[in-house]
Target: Dimeric dUTPase
Amino acid sequence: MQSQDKLDQIFELQKKLNLKIGVDPTTMDQETRIQWLLNYTRAIGQELAELVDSIPWKWWAKYQKFDLQNARVEVIDLLHFLVSTAQLLGMSPEDLFEAYHKKHMVNVKRIDEGYHFKDENDCKHI
Model:
């Protein structure tokens, strides 16, 4: 497994973990796939809330402390659900990397040119 790309390894590990709980995108009908996409989207929202709870976001509350260790764990939990979502959408590690790269270039262009208006077509190629 050492010679594999790290993103390939993450996708493989997540596939195995999901199979352990009975989530197999290759055997899902559309209704089940949509339900799992909703499950993962809700889980991502919850993990984001847990990440926020690790950061002293109440500027008026002096008792809060930054929990770096837990914040890192929450980022990994987010990655679990994001990879699972990508897999449900039929994306491979290569697909994810390519889409990330294309979207990154859109974001760079927006920053360089000033993001003055929403262009509905600037992400159609991704």
